[in-house]
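R.M. (postdoc): so does anyone remember the format we settled on? I'll just put the structure tokens first.
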């Protein structure tokens, strides 16, 4: 079948190595980290130029790298939707939740979320909810420091974000050791594979029992969040559901109450609750894991963090005076720059895909018919030399900073969401961006202030050899394959105790 996609009346270029029947399908059958590298190679070859791909499991499609084209997609929420291609693959896990939803169903969940992610709740998050959870995290780091044990930082950070989200959003104690967390992790890997493997249905027909069980466990957990919340509302507002007053106390205005206030169907609320959990927990834990990994490999950046903390909080000893005001990116710009630089290399949502509901013409003249898919790899855009310059492969947080002078302090550069779409942009921009940034600055500042970390390399790395770049595991997001095992030592531990 001949493709109808055109630019100025001509067909679009195709990546080198495109095969007559399989098209580019071979790359989609590879482990995802290889697919991500392929996107980078294509971007390096064609730059911002849009190219066409054909993959047997995909409708006709294009890959965009030009920020103007990404802006066109993200701002045209009516033309570019999640669509059937996405929904068919993720339906059993995400159901009617916000990640899958379009139209009215999306709008209402977005509205409920917006009510929750306000400044008052973010202040409660930073000043009341996070400190005791972080204190538990530090207690386990202290134990590992005393005993000289190796610990997997990825697990530690996942536990922190899971408990945090459970507490602030659902008023539940939710450690990552709950079975749902393991089931979700497994399901996320399997669902991610459905986007790459055209034979996923056949594979799951034979081997899908464990996936079905994992999805079942996740769904049961979603329903249990709703039951616990409705129970609490009945106790608080009276026994009949019809008498349930709309929730007005700002501290009580958590996410589950906001969802229950906006949506009558409890199954949709359960899906929404699970979707918010999955959007927030893994992404944030992974972004912190990759940041600490990069900091271990760049001790100079750790030093600069310490120097920013020393000059900002002069005289601080054991605990830093962190508050809602002091964990803002404008207050600690170097830490915010480190976080951005880490997201540039390791975006927790590395590839995006949308389906067109109508024909459309992109700013670069590409004409796309209805029913096509458009993809962009945030992973490759973050490594684009067109956008970031010739040193795009270098970890250099300074690229995010505007140097201060004797009158003005160092400031953080802003970058267009369409050139750096790690949090998406337009009407479907990530709702948790602010929460993720505040949390990241708080956690990075606290951990680098108190601890030294040393990565445990794999057995193949010889002493003195530069260790290989760590890679990600197949998933919908970006977990680090094999976790992040490391030694940890409290900076104020007795002299002689070394890593
Ligand atoms: C570093 C951390 C995070 C990153 C990189 C990130 C990134 C993203 C991206 C790329 C999207 C668009 C995905 C899509 O096309 O469906 C998204 C959507 C979303 N994110 Fe985040 N996210 C992060 C943290 C969070 C947190 C902490 C929450 C809070 C629960 C959250 C809630 C959401 C929600 C609800 C959506 C769906 C928005 C919509 O469709 O209207 N995210 N995020």
């Amino acid at each position: 079948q001949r493709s109808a996609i055109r630019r100025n009346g001509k067909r679009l270029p195709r990546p080198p190595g495109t095969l007559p029947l399989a098209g580019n399908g071979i790359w989609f059958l590879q482990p995802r980290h290889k697919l991500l590298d392929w996107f980078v190679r294509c971007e390096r070859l064609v730059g911002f130029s849009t190219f066409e791909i054909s993959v047997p499991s995909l409708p006709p499609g294009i890959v965009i790298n030009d920020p103007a084209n990404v802006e066109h997609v993200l701002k045209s929420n009516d033309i570019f939707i999640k669509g059937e291609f996405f929904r068919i693959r993720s339906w059993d896990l995400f159901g009617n939740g916000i990640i899958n939803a379009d139209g009215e169903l999306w709008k209402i969940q977005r509205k409920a979320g917006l009510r929750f992610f306000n400044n008052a709740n973010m202040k409660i998050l930073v000043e009341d909810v996070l400190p005791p959870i972080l204190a538990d995290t530090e207690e386990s780091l202290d134990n590992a420091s005393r005993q000289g044990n190796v610990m997997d930082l990825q697990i530690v950070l996942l536990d922190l974000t899971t408990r945090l989200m459970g507490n602030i959003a659902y008023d539940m104690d939710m450690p990552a050791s709950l079975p749902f967390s393991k089931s979700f992790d497994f399901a996320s890997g399997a669902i991610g594979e459905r986007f790459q493997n055209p034979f996923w249905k056949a594979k799951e027909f034979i081997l899908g029992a464990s996936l079905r069980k994992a999805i079942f466990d996740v769904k049961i957990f979603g329903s249990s969040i709703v039951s616990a919340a409705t129970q609490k509302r009945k106790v608080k507002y009276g026994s009949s559901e019809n008498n349930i007053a709309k929730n007005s106390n700002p501290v009580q205005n958590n996410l589950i109450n906001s969802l229950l206030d906006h949506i009558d169907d409890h199954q949709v609320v359960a899906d929404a609750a699970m979707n918010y959990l999955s959007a927030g927990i893994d992404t944030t834990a992974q972004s912190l894991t990759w940041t600490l990994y990069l900091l271990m490999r760049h001790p100079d950046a750790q030093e600069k963090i310490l120097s920013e903390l020393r000059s900002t909080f002069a005289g601080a000893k054991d605990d830093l005076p962190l508050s809602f005001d002091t964990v803002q990116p404008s207050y600690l710009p170097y830490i915010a720059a480190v976080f951005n630089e880490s997201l540039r290399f390791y975006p927790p949502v590395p590839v995006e895909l949308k389906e067109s509901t109508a024909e459309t013409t992109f700013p670069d003249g590409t004409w796309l018919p209805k029913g096509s898919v458009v993809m962009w790899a945030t992973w490759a855009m973050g490594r684009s030399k067109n956008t970031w310059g010739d040193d795009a492969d270098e970890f250099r947080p300074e690229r995010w900073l505007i140097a201060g002078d004797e009158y003005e302090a160092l400031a953080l550069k802003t970058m267009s969401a369409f050139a750096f779409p790690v949090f998406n942009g337009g009407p479907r921009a990530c709702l948790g961006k602010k929460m993720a940034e505040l949390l990241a600055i708080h956690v990075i500042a606290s951990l680098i202030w108190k601890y030294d970390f040393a990565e445990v390399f794999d057995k193949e790395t010889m002493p003195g050899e530069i260790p290989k770049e760590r890679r990600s595991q197949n998933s919908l997001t970006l977990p680090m394959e094999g976790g992040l095992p490391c030694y940890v030592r409290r900076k104020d531990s007795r002299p002689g105790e070394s890593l």
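R.M.: ...and that's the designed sequence above, right after the tokens. Also worth knowing: Residues 98-99, 110, 113, 276, 279-280, 283-284, 287, 348-349, 352, 422-424, 428, 430-432, 435-436 surround protoporphyrin IX containing FE (CB under 6 Å). The chain is about 50% helix and 10% strand.
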